[in-house]
Amino acid sequence: MKRVKNHMQRGLEQCRKDVRKFGAVGGLMLLYMAVVSLFFGTCCPIRIFTGLPCPGCGITRAAVLLVTGRWQQAWQMNPVIFAIALAALYFAANRYLLGRKAKEMKWVVAAIAVLLLAVYIVRMNACFPGKEPYNYQKGSILERILPAYWGK
């Protein structure tokens, strides 16, 4: 029992260190997402500039759906969220529970990137334009500066 308690204390201390080290970055990211979403209706720089979805399109909404237990809707929004969630759990278990580095994470992240691209290609072919999140967002920067950009 004492060993488990020591693991938990070490994990909590590592978590505190990480929050102190990276908390400001996380807070700035949330602030960016909130402010930019208010002005542009999205926080994705690719969508803001081009109006087109990117390979990660729908991940934020899928994460919210996953966390709130709406798994089927999360899958429909972007199925890669399940791989991302498993990778995050793997990383957290290694870092905070086992107290070791997850050396394989660079390969896991690379695999997720390939998966995102593969899903993007398939879904853009099958769903674009029209089915959320694979639709064109009017009012992009390119559309504003180049009126002929999206068929005007």
Task: Describe the overall structure.
It is a single chain. By secondary structure, the chain is mostly helical. The protein has one domain (2-145). It is built from seven helices and no strands. The protein has helices at residues 2-40, 45-50, 59-67, 71-77, 81-97, 105-127, 141-145. Helix 3 packs antiparallel against helix 4 and helix 5 runs antiparallel to helix 6. The longest helix is centred in the N-terminal third of the chain and has 39 residues, at 2-40. It is elongated and about 65 Å long.
Write the layout of secondary structure elements.
Layout: H1 2-40, H2 45-50, H3 59-67, H4 71-77, H5 81-97, H6 105-127, H7 141-145
Helix pairs in contact: 3-4, 5-6
Please outline what is shown here.
The protein has 152 residues and is mostly helical.
